[in-house]
Amino acid sequence: MDFGKFHSQLELPFAETENEFLGDIFNTLELEFGLKYASNQKLIDLGAGNGNMVIFAALNYCIKAFGIELNLNLIKEARSRIKLLKKEGNYKKRVLKKAKFKRRDFFTYNLEEYDYIYIYSLPSMHKYLKHVVRTAKKGAIIITHRHKLENFNSILEIEYILTHKRDKQEFFTFFYKKIS
Ligand SMILES: C[S@@+](CC[C@H](N)C(=O)[O-])C[C@H]1O[C@@H](n2cnc3c(N)ncnc32)[C@H](O)[C@@H]1O
Known about the structure:
The chain is α/β, with parallel strands linked by helices.
């Protein structure tokens, strides 16, 4: 057993980005950060869970969307969702092919090819992600859901904070640009 990976999943359990917030997150990417339908832009979700974010990107924006995830069961669930969508026949195959999932550890992943990097993690994990964020190209947009990144000032600039409201509670999504 790889105890490093096991520990990592205990530190960061699965919780999905709420469907009701996804539309606003992508609208913001489109309006503020140049996301274009059917472009060559690439998105990655670090710790993709059951694929919510990645599948949304592929279906609604037709861009290459990758999810890396440690938990094999969640990867299987994400792939089954794609299979089901194929069966239902409401989306073209070439659109569904845009969503891909791999079993990888985000602590050892290189981000240089991605334009949009999504992270729904915990502040306790963020500090261990700095070396990973460093591999992103200059100008890449890093999006963190619910929790802001602390002490990334030398490499990231905060560009936008999106407020979501639910049951009189407020939740935030943070948008950063890689500056060096
Ligand atoms: C809070 S969930 C977010 C799920 C998804 N991104 C979403 O927004 O719906 C975090 C995910 O990260 C995964 N995870 C934890 N450590 C990981 C690691 N080192 N590499 C890849 N995935 C990891 C967990 O299994 C979990 O599914």
